[in-house]
Design goal:
Chain A has about 475 residues and is an alpha+beta fold. Helix content of chain A is about 30%, strand content about 25%. In chain B, the strands form two sheets. In chain B, strands 1, 2, 6, 7 and 8 form a five-stranded antiparallel sheet that branches. The chains are: A alpha+beta (about 475), B alpha+beta (about 140).
């Protein structure tokens, strides 16, 4: 692919601007968070052209943002943030992505590396057995049509009501694990049919379940409020989304939006940016359906978290409470939210699209949970299975500059095919094992696609958002055991 | 415009986070059939699929390229929700905005069919469908 030759203006070491006059039709400039070095690789693809294209969308305010983990997506880049004025702006399913509310949930434990390492095989096997994963996997729970309707409306609470988790988990989940406005009427039969058997499954691809060891604590006060107190402490990270259900919701509504584009006379530089005015029936229908998918994903992660606790409990012979298995937080990485922000000095209600980006609300914000009011909302940023993951917090700077948003992960550097070719003849599982990382995967050949080499270095990504001030790093953990679908 | 080669049925192409297919056909009917075959060759080994059942499908959309996306999305849905794998497609009727086809295959059997990747959606991203006197060619990116 051709290198991107567009115009970039350096603002400081971590911020770059695509001027509004780069392309006729841009309504706002682009703002990219990256180091000089990262920018070099970002420009190897046409990702920044996508950042400029998003700036065409009606009602966009501020900037079309690119986080340092940005890579090429469909229409919208992955790692992009765009806020639209709800009065005259649009909502775009492409600005959320297919896997609606793909996200991560972090559990802390009171266990240490010394206690877990000798039993890692048993633990990984128990988790692999208890958490359905892999291609075509079906859930342990059977969801009827009626229950599916409740699940879509209640989100994580649906699972808690069935005894899978506690009220405290909901407090430690973005939106309390339930996005308002969900309306099952807006969901097709096809989406329901795809969703019912897959509820409570991890899935495949880049989704995972990881046992981690805390390696570094950057801010001990903030970390301790999250329950992260010791180097060597064991954490569990769950990464999954809304499975086939979310994909069908996106597919169904993209089709509607394709028609809406001409109906409302919207001019787009790329058809995958298909959108409709937020206030239109098409826009409202999508938001109501998207909320159902977001809630499905939260219910999914809630069920999985419960089975993770059960597995630990079985192996260590203690209750999850005794093992200190509290939920640190659960964040969305793919979502559109109606939020209030200050734009040009005035309060504005906007629809913030975060596609491969994380909400990063500061200390004191009304939507930051009570237990984190003093420190800011936890931000969970997984890396690849061979390197590390970070815990960070939201900041006032994110609120004033990036609509309370930051990065979401490492971001792919190689295509799946290129990753497979570069790893040809190498035994990824054995290489990881030699480095103290035990892996169990349903689909061994696809492991090479998820090797470290396929991803950007998460440490560089975090450094950029930390230095730019849109989130603050708190702790870093490395994997000890990984389950891939 | 592409240089159209109709010798091959399809090719698999790389995309950063996903995968794409390029399908060929001497006519649009053959192209639609080959695109579907490419899809199932990504999901599993098409040789492992036997013709034990058939299903009549009808898909509609505005424009041939959108119809192609709809067609593949219908097949993706049938695998994900109904667990059916297909390996032969008889395109009965194909207009600018309507497709009727009979699809042949069998129910997914985990002991018999090795699933290679989970294809979740056919997208409009970089979608191309070109036709000339010699045949036609289409490119579709799939979300996996």
């Amino acid at each position: 692919m051709a290198r991107w030759q567009g115009q970039l203006i350096k603002i400081d070491d971590y911020r770059w601007k695509i001027p509004e006059n780069y392309k006729t039709g841009m309504k706002v400039p682009g703002l990219i968070y990256a180091s000089q070095e990262m920018l070099e690789s970002i420009c190897e693809e046409q990702t920044l052209e996508q950042v400029a294209n998003v700036a065409f969308l009606p009602g966009i305010v501020g900037y079309s943002f690119a986080m340092p983990d940005i890579h090429w997506g469909y229409g919208f880049p992955i790692g992009g943030v765009a806020a639209m004025d709800i009065k005259d702006g649009v909502v775009s399913p492409g600005g959320v992505g297919y896997d609606i509310n793909c996200g991560v949930r972090l559990l802390r434990t009171s266990l240490s590396e010394a206690e877990v390492r000798p039993r890692i095989y048993e633990l990984i096997n128990a988790l692999f057995h208890n958490v359905p994963s892999g291609l075509g996997s079906e859930g342990r729970i059977k969801v009827s049509q009626k229950e599916m309707n409740q699940l879509m409306v209640e989100g994580a609470r649906w699972a808690v009501k069935r005894g899978l988790g506690s009220e405290e988990d909901l407090d430690a989940t973005e939106e309390g694990g339930c996005l308002g406005g969900a309306d099952p009427i807006k969901i097709s039969d096809k989406a329901v049919k795809r969703g019912m058997p897959q509820a409570g499954t991890l899935g495949s691809g880049n989704h995972f379940l990881e046992i981690q060891v805390v390696k570094e604590i950057f801010d001990s006060h903030i970390a301790s409020i999250m329950g992260i107190t010791e180097i060597g402490q064991i954490l569990v990270l769950i990464h999954t989304g809304s499975r086939g259900f979310g994909h069908q919701v996106c597919t169904d509504h993209l089709r509607v939006m394709e028609g809406a584009v001409s109906k409302y006379g919207i001019k787009l530089p790329d058809r995958q940016l298909a959108c409709a005015p937020i206030e239109s029936s098409e826009g409202q229908d999508y938001l109501a359906a998207m909320a159902c998918a977001a809630n499905y994903a939260w219910a999914n992660r809630q069920c999985i978290a419960h089975w993770v606790r059960e597995s630990f409990s079985k192996i260590f012979g203690k209750s999850p409470e005794k093992l200190g298995m509290r939920q640190v937080y659960d964040v969305c990485h793919n979502i559109a939210k109606i939020e209030e922000h200050i734009v040009d000095g005035r309060k504005l209600r906007v629809c913030v699209h975060r596609k491969g980006a994380t909400r990063a609300f500061p200390a004191g914000h009304k939507d930051t949970p009570t237990r984190y009011k003093e420190i800011g909302q936890p931000v969970l940023v997984p890396g690849d299975m061979g390197r590390c993951s970070f815990v960070a917090v939201g900041t006032q700077k994110a609120m004033s500059e990036s609509f309370g948003s930051t990065c979401h992960g490492a971001g792919r550097a190689l295509s799946r095919g290129a990753a497979r070719r570069s790893m040809q003849g190498r035994d990824v599982a054995r290489e990881l094992e030699n480095r103290g990382i035990t892996i169990k995967a349903g689909n061994i050949p696809s492991l090479a696609e998820e090797a470290s080499q396929a991803y950007k270095d998460i440490t560089e990504v975090i450094e950029v958002v930390h230095q730019a001030g849109i989130s603050r790093k708190v702790a870093m953990a490395i994997p000890m055991g990984v389950i891939k679908g | 415009m592409y240089i159209v080669e109709v010798k091959r049925a399809f090719e698999i192409i790389d995309h950063v986070a996903d995968v794409g297919i390029v399908a060929y056909g001497t006519d649009v009917e053959e192209l639609f059939s080959n695109a579907a075959l490419a899809l199932f060759s990504l999901i599993t080994e098409p040789e492992s699929i036997e013709e034990k059942l058939h299903l009549d499908l009808e898909v509609s959309s505005e424009g041939r390229d959108r119809l192609l996306v709809e067609w593949l999305n219908e097949l993706i849905y049938l695998f994900d929700a109904e667990r059916i794998l297909f390996n032969r497609f008889d395109i009965k009727r194909l207009t600018h905005n309507e497709l009727k086809a009979t699809c042949y295959g069998e129910g997914f059997d985990p002991m018999k069919h090795k699933i290679k990747i989970g294809v979740k959606a056919a997208t409009y991203h970089m979608l191309k469908l070109d036709k000339n006197g010699d045949g036609c060619k289409a490119q579709i990116i799939l979300d996996i």
